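HUMAN: Can I see a protein plus its fold?

ASSISTANT:
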Amino acid sequence: MRAKDESMYCVIAEDAEIGSNVVMGHHVVIHSHVIIEDDVVIGDGAVLGRIPSKSKTSRLVTTELGPLRIGRGTIVGSQAIVYRGSVIGRECYIADQAVVRERCRLGTGVVIGQRCTVENDCQIGDYTKLQTAVYLTATSTVEDNVFIAPMVTTTNDPYVARNKSRQDTMQGPIIHRAARIGGGAVLLPGIHIGQEALVAAGAVVTRDVPPYRLVMGVPARVVRQVPEEQWLFLPDGIRRD
């Protein structure tokens, strides 16, 4: 870690494991059960390993959480909060004031933009980018090389019910490899966005989007095929050169 006299007023739990060449800003808080690998940069006021809490009326189910692990070469921005029980891959970028909740898994090279919220139990694949103020609801799955533009909202409760049984039906969207979501789009619960699909800005997606198709409108409808020259992956799964 950088010399203590350069990082002022940090609070670090005794059992925290901190690798070599870790750079911390001022007023960083590192809770118990946090593992930070080598070459990580942590911005001013960031909080790592926070334990989740809930309101008296919340139906959130809490479980025993494993340690928070921050992968080698990751950058955590100022005032970002990353909860215990999540695993952050190598070379990720978590921007200022972003929040990553418990039991999330981020792959290699993931970008979480400024003021994004990634709720609990989300899976995010390698080299995926969430731009400013994206809301990724709990239990969402986002595969590799996905691009999600600013202010996109995802949802996971199909009935907005007021009873316990609704927990069994809650499911965030599944966004498949190399899909792109335009700014301000809204994705309904459990929706599949197919590989290389493109959702236009402002669209409200109420049903599954086929692979390699562009959808737009409210509700979103298929307009045409995404141009082949824009594909990263062919239908057989092979990445283009």
